[in-house]
UniProtKB/TrEMBL annotation:
<dbReference type="Pfam" id="PF01243">
    <property type="entry name" value="PNPOx_N"/>
</dbReference>
<dbReference type="InterPro" id="IPR012349">
    <property type="entry name" value="Split_barrel_FMN-bd"/>
</dbReference>
<feature type="domain" description="Pyridoxamine 5'-phosphate oxidase N-terminal">
    <location>
        <begin position="9"/>
        <end position="89"/>
    </location>
</feature>
<protein>
    <recommendedName>
        <fullName>Pyridoxamine 5'-phosphate oxidase N-terminal domain-containing protein</fullName>
    </recommendedName>
</protein>
<dbReference type="InterPro" id="IPR011576">
    <property type="entry name" value="Pyridox_Oxase_N"/>
</dbReference>
């Protein structure tokens, strides 16, 4: 592990301006314990702000509204990054998407290498979408366009 910085590196910023698999860690509103969920609707607005789009059916919306402290775990650049910050509602509901979503901005307070000493990530996780590819591309396009406008 290494010391933290308060913003994204240029290469991490570029990576997070494209569809990227991340783990969003929140405090569960019911149990008070930690929870982790994989998401891909994340967009780096700039080096100090990440924007997330979350389906209102997800527990994550309530979690972040009740306790805004979050960590996003990002796999890339040969390592695992832990990005800590505070989530605030940017716009709710997010317009121009086919179902109700909440858009959050995460103000980054720290970015650190979270991989154990002496290790290097050989590959980032990859995922495939299990529903209609054209529908997935259309929905992703709508969500990312709305997030960028927010």
């Amino acid at each position: 592990m290494s010391e933290s910085v308060a913003q994204l590196t240029d290469s991490l910023l570029k990576m997070l301006q494209n569809e990227t698999f991340v783990l969003l860690n929140t405090v569960d509103a019911e149990s008070g314990g930690p929870t982790s969920t994989a998401i891909s609707w994340v967009y780096a607005v700039n080096a100090s702000t990440l924007r997330l789009a979350i389906d209102h059916r997800s527990r994550l919306v309530r979690n972040m509204k009740e306790n805004p402290l979050v960590t996003l775990t990002v796999f890339g650049e040969g390592t695992v990054h832990a990005i800590n910050g505070r989530a605030v509602v940017k716009i709710d509901p997010l317009p121009e998407v086919p179902f109700e979503m909440c858009c959050f901005d995460v103000q980054i307070s720290a970015v650190r290498n979270a991989l154990f000493y002496g290790a290097q990530l050989e590959s980032a996780p990859r995922y495939g979408k299990t529903y209609d590819q054209r529908a997935a591309e259309k929905l992703d396009g709508q969500v990312f366009a709305a997030m960028q406008k927010a």
